[in-house]
User: Fold this.
Amino acid sequence: MYEPPLHRNENLPELHALIKERVFGLLISKGAEGLIANSLPFVLDTAASKLGVLKVHLARANPQWRDLQEQPDALVVFEGHDHYITPSWYATKQETGKVVPTWNYTMVQAKGRAKVMDDAWLGQQILELTQALEQRREQPWAVGDAPADFIAMLRRAIVGLEIEILDIRGKWKTSQNRNAADRAGVISGLDALGDEDSRAMAGIVRETGRD
Assistant:
């Protein structure tokens, strides 16, 4: 992806944190019919390799996993928080009027080589994914809550993939190119909107601001 130095994030723990927070990634690969992309929930194992390992499962009827057996190169895109930024929030608008709208966002892109995994691995991936997502609930659902024969039937209909991350890039486009007064206006404008996404982006602008 296009990465101006000002927006490049090379902090691996921060990149991993975004993946763990925004687990629903876009798996992109090339097969017999060209490019194919599917949105899927991933588990990230940060200890499995230098840059981490992504674990995912998809429907057996989905042709992407067969394509990946032939051409295993894969790109996974994780989109973080994003928000429209109106130029009306900039102090510069009042001073010169030389401002235009833009979009703030955070993103991680991970490249690696996918391999199809066995049934024991698949069972563990299902447990890890369920625990990661259900732990946020007061009364988390567990795989064992469903009948074993039902789970076994569903497992036969899916395929597991493991992708060792060989290259990972982060982009935080969060008003770093604006002066302090403009960034303060962006933060104030986002906070005033009051919704969760706006507050999240306001916090990121605070953290990444610089002169």
